[in-house]
TrEMBL record:
UniProt source species: Nocardioides panaciterrulae
Domain of life the protein comes from: Bacteria
Gene3D superfamilies per UniProt: alpha/beta hydrolase
A GO MF term: catalytic activity
InterPro entries found in the cross-reference section: AB_hydrolase_1, AB_hydrolase_fold, AB_hydrolase_sf
PANTHER family (alphabetical): HYDROLASE, PUTATIVE (AFU_ORTHOLOGUE AFUA_2G14860)-RELATED, MONOACYLGLYCEROL LIPASE
Residues annotated as domain AB hydrolase-1: 32-135
Protein name per its UniProtKB record: Pimeloyl-ACP methyl ester carboxylesterase
GO cellular component, one term: membrane
Length: 285
């Protein structure tokens, strides 16, 4: 089934001025779903899932958070935090005129979704969480993003050089996920340093007490053998939230390479959030 796709933009006001955020809408109607990308990745990473959800009648929006994709990329680390990202999602809902949405995302996007559920619980119809970054990911996160912060801050030619190499490659000539990788490498050193700095030294996720207070239905997907997003974090989160269902992916690549099973789980969950007010359909494991 073909669905309409539209690109839009809106602006958020901050201490340093006005910043532009860009998004893509898929489908139409009042059953809203917002999908959020991983750290430094573009919103286009969720295009396949967005199309699958929209084909079932859901109104899906993918957003480039500040510092990512085609949104503005200021170089001030004070602009980047989980709370600031969550406020951008609420601003998106206000811009769209959406009273509520199923909020979901991957990695960074998963944590931002949890933050939205804490700061604006009345706007969250449900949570679609993949690869949350919580207690068990601390050491791997430091090892992964510490060198990136150092390189972007003190060896900016490494980040900017990758951008010069990857930007000329036509995205239409490479496989979809290769294009996403190229987009992820298309960075400015100063904004990368700001994003990683802001997140590195800020709050990564709501506290366990706050997570236990999230009453929205949730579908939590965890991956095996993923040190930065350990399945133990996803399982722990599903155990903390009173209305969560945990689904274990068969591999890190399942939702990218063979997405049908997890797409069906996500579609069933999102439709359940809208078809039965206040109750989520428990998606198949």
């Amino acid at each position: 089934m073909l669905v309409s796709e539209r690109i839009g933009q809106f602006f958020v006001e901050g201490d340093s001025g006005r910043d532009r955020l860009e998004y893509t809408e898929y489908g139409s109607g009042d059953a809203w779903v917002v999908l959020l990308h991983g750290q430094l990745m573009p919103r286009r990473m969720h295009q396949p899932l967005a199309r699958a959800l929209a084909a079932e009648g859901l109104h899906v929006v993918t957003l480039d958070l500040l510092g990512h994709g085609r949104s503005d990329r200021p170089a001030d680390p004070l602009l980047y935090s989980m709370t600031a990202f969550a406020e951008q999602v609420v601003a998106l809902l206000d811009h769209l005129g959406a009273p509520q949405a199923v909020i979901g995302g991957t990695s960074l996007g998963a944590n931002v979704s949890l933050e939205v559920a804490v700061i604006a619980p009345d706007r969250v119809r449900g949570l679609l969480i993949e690869m949350p970054v919580l207690n068990n990911a601390l050491e791997a996160g430091i090892l992964a993003f510490g060198p990136l912060l150092f390189a972007a801050r003190f060896l900016p030619f490494t980040v900017n050089g990758l951008r010069l190499l990857t930007r000329p490659v036509p995205r239409g000539l490479v496989p979809f996920w290769a294009g996403i990788a190229l987009d992820t490498l298309d960075q400015h050193a100063d904004s990368v340093a700001a994003v990683v700095h802001g997140l590195f030294f800020g709050r990564i996720a709501p506290s366990s007490k706050q997570r236990r207070g999230i009453t929205a239905p949730a579908l939590v997907v965890g991956h095996p053998a993923d040190p930065i997003h350990p399945a133990a974090d996803a399982a722990m989160l599903a155990g903390e939230m009173p209305r969560a269902t945990f689904v274990r992916a068969r591999s890190i690549l399942e939702w990218r390479a063979t997405p049908d099973r997890l797409n069906r789980a996500a579609i069933g969950f999102a439709l359940g959030c809208w078809q039965t007010p206040g109750r989520a359909r428990r998606a198949g494991r």
